[in-house]
Amino acid sequence: MESRWNDEDAARFVEAARAAGQSEALGLRIYTSRIIGSDPDLVLHGGGNTSVKVRSDEGEDLMHIKGSGWDLDTIEAPGLPAVRLAPLLEARNTPKLSDPDMVSLLRASLIEKDAPNPSVEALLHAFIPFAYVDHTHATAVLALADQPNMRDTVRRIYGDRLAYVPYVMPGFDLSIAADRIYRNHAGCEGLWLENHGLFTFANDARASYELMIEFVTLAEQELARAGVALTGPQPNDGERDAGLAKRLENALMREGSPFVFLDYRSTAAIRELTSKPNVEAISLRGTVTPDHVIRIKPWPMIIGADADEPAIESALAAYADRYRAYFETNATRANEPKRILDVYPRVVLVLGKGMFAIGANAKAAKIGGDLCEQAARAINAAEAYGCFTPISEADLFDMEYWSLEQAKLK
Question: What is the rounded distance in angstroms from the CA atom of residue 236 to the CA atom of residue 375?
């Protein structure tokens, strides 16, 4: 992976920030957020987050942190709302914060009260004592992060430069756990989050960004060392079967699904995945990063390329039964009542051919399709390297039914 840093572009963002009465640091934060967000092998559709710590003209320590609902590739200053740093740092000594209490703390700390909600990982950004903090879900990193027992491998690849954080659900618990691990690994330059992604940090915008590029490159090199060819984004060159699409659409409408917009993808990586003899078993393991579950459900539905409408309707019924069982099994563990979401798939794998992403509108379907393209490449690489092993079903359920994630979609 190559750095996209360009001195002239960076200078333009700094000048634009000054002209708008904003700090140079925020201008650089917008610039590096965009070059991170413009690379689909780093983040997709709201995934990942960035921050920068600054001091106000009045001498107060603030942090600009990505706001929910913004994508890094198009982010502007309003998408990086400022929060007062002191109240967030005090939360480090709080025994426990519920999700609503954490959101209340973050909103109470906003400088502009009508700003978007700060990222659910804002506390972790605050706890890391560097000006710039970058967090991504890079494809190469996910191929390795979704492997069992990777602590020793991560240490072999990165030495003491990265601290290893076992999987913890994003939010307050992850912030506390990762902060504790960071403080026990003084001098590290980033955090490796099991089954999740990567953090890098520095007091310079370019340094933090290029650490991210370097560490993702090292992940790519580890895959290459093992003989794994991680492909980049690929052309969508498979022919869409209009008849199959119509049969799927008809079956969804007859079942009463409000999700009837289809986005078909057929890349070389998708065809490789859908042609695997054990594709169903692989697909049932879960999503490549926890955030994806709120967009594409825990697993796809699978049909043959020649499936007729009765076969598709049967697959939809089986999918609904599996989803209800998943809900009933996991809802009993929850510490608050859960209400089942819809039981319709968001992804349909067509064996040997491609996949349909399904959404309530064309935009949602396209987002699902983009996520599926990245997931196919990451899963193929993970299987070639070892065994694709994402978070457990219980953890996946907790993420899908997490009140904060549901609020993001609303």
Answer: 15
